[in-house]
Structure formats: structure tokens, C-alpha cells
Amino acid sequence: EGAFVYLALVGNVADSSGLLASLWKEYGQADARWLYFDPNLVAVELLTVFLDGSLALFLVYAIVKEKCYRHFIQITLCVCELYGGWMTFSPEWLTGSPNLNTSNWLYFWVYLVFFNGVWVLAPGLLLYQSWVELRKMHDRETCLGKKLH
Fold first, then answer.
1. What is the pTM of this model?
2. How far is C-alpha 119 from the geometric centre of its chain's CA atoms?
3. How far apart are CA 125 and CA 103, in angstroms?
4. Burial class (CB in 10 A: 0-12, 13-18, 19+), 20
């Protein structure tokens, strides 16, 4: 998304060249908002690049170093990602999806459903993982507290 933000802020994807621009141009065949400056998308992607990107790096550190705040960061990042996805697509759905190419099988099922579904499935699974781990910690604390009394 960093390349998209850069291209959107200095011009637009449609008029840009290079490998990253060509990738966004291809995705723009499924969702035309990515070809030109869409303020909603750019605003969401600015948060994704800077906030979520920083949180992701911090999360990797927390996982590797087994920090106690790992699940707090993981939950925060997952919620940010799910909210960002919602804010990317809900305005489009509310206006009848005029920029989404739903008539082409590849663009609809692969680009829009599958690729964007990964950004729902992965945070959903990580939220579940955090829930399970926090639940285990709670149960251990509860059992330990009962044994001490």
C-alpha cells in the first residue's frame, strides 16, 4: 500500500509507470478507485501504511522477544485492519459499487473476493488466536488464585 499512497499523492496510478504502478493498474481493473485519487482510499491507506505498518513491526518484535504486550498489539492491529477494510468497501457498497468490476470472473472472485478476503481471514484468525491465549492466561490465573486461597 505504500507504493499506492506515494503514487496517489504525487499524481495517480493510471498515469504512472513502473512495476508497482503496473500491479496497482491491474488491481484497478477490478476496483477503479485505485487508479485515481480517491480521498477515502488514500486516507485509509495512509493509516494502513504508517500506523498499521509500525504496529506490524512492533508486533514482530513482541513475538520474537516474547513480550507480555504481544496480544494487545496483535488485537489492535487486527481491529485496525478489519476497520480499514470496512472503510474501504462500505462507502462503495452504499453507493451501489459503481467502481467495482463485478462482471468479470477474475476481477470479482480473485481480485475482489479472494485477495480482500485474505485481509479479513488473517486478522480474524489472529484475533481468535489472541482470544484463546488470553483465555488460557485468565484460566491459569483463576486456578492459581483458587489454589492460594
1. 0.89
2. 5
3. 30
4. middle
Give the three cell numbers for residue 73. 498489539
| CA–CA separation, 72 and 56 (whole Å) | 12
Quote the DSSP letter at residue 32: G
For the chain, report the end-to-end CA distance as a whole number of angstroms: 53
**Cα dihedral 29/20/75/79 (nearest 10):** -30
C-alpha cell at 122: 488473517
**How many residues in the chain?**
149
b/e code 95-108 from CB counts within 10 Å (16+ = b):
eeeebbbeeeeebe
CB-neighbour burial class of residue 34 (10 A; exposed 0-12, middle 13-18, buried 19+): buried
Rounded to the nearest angstrom, the gap between the alpha carbon of residue 6 and the centroid of all alpha carbons in its chain is 18
pLDDT, tens digit (0-9, with 9 covering 90-100), for 11-31: 999 999 999 999 999 999 999
